[in-house]
Structures are given as C-alpha cells and as structure tokens.
Specification:
Blueprint: E1 7-10, H1 14-19, E2 24-27, E3 31-37, E4 48-54, H2 62-83, E5 88-94, H3 98-101, H4 104-128
Parallel strand pairs: 1-4, 4-5
Antiparallel strand pairs: 2-3, 3-5
Helix pairs in contact: 2-4
Length: 129
C-alpha cells in the first residue's frame, strides 16, 4: 500500500483563481473554501493537489492579512494532503476578523468537515453528468 502524501502545488495565476468560481463553495466561520475537480488540463499532473490562498483588504492591514494567510497555509499543509482528493483544486479565502482570531483547532475542524461535505456534493454532481 502506498501511503505517500500527494504533492501540493500552489495556484499562482489569476485565471486559475477565477476558474475556481465555477466550482463548489462552502462558507465556514473562519474562511470560505472553494473546490473543483480538474478536468482534461494537461499542465498539471493528476496525482497532485493544487491549493490557493487569498485574503482581501477587508481582512485588515498587511500584517493581519499575512497572519491570516500563514494560518490558512498551515491548515492546508496539515489537512489537505490527507483529506483532499488528488486531481482537485482548493482555494481558501480568509474572512475579516475571524480567520485571524479563531482558534486553530476550530479552523482545523471547519476545514475537515468542509472537505467531507464538498466531496459528497462533488461526487454526486459528477455522477449525474
């Protein structure tokens, strides 16, 4: 049995973030999670998971935005490799006030539960097509 974690690749291009709008979305108290399954995209290998992070100026000044992104990055590195699906893209969007201030345990729980919900929805959606 191969227990290797899938490779995490950062989403860097604006058009890739914009493409995420067509995917699934769940809002939690600490962040918004967007996800979509990659289809027929030759640029990235299917055995990897791609992720993106974003925080708007509503989150606060640069210091607060960077802190929120560091927390989201830690969440991604800890949870997405084990709970995420290969061949999927995930974007976490920070929320004002809460991303920075909620306890990390609550954020972990929110992300884990959100991934389970999204994958159930995603699997049903792709079975219909």
């Amino acid at each position: 049995m191969n227990s290797r974690k899938p490779k995490l690749i950062k989403i860097t291009k604006k058009n890739e973030y914009l493409r995420m709008r067509s995917g699934l979305k769940i809002s939690t108290p600490g962040f918004i999670l967007q996800a979509r399954q990659r289809e027929n995209e030759d640029t990235v290998d299917r055995s990897s998971i791609r992720y993106g992070l974003t925080c708007s100026k509503r989150v606060g000044n640069a210091v607060k935005r960077n802190r929120a992104k560091r927390r989201l990055r830690a969440l991604v590195n800890e949870i997405i490799p084990t709970k995420g699906f290969k061949g999927w893209d995930y974007v976490l969007i920070g929320k004002e006030q809460t991303t920075e201030k909620l306890s990390f345990k609550i954020l972990e729980k929110n992300l884990t539960e959100s991934l389970v919900k999204l994958h159930k929805i995603g699997i049903k959606k792709f079975e219909k097509n």
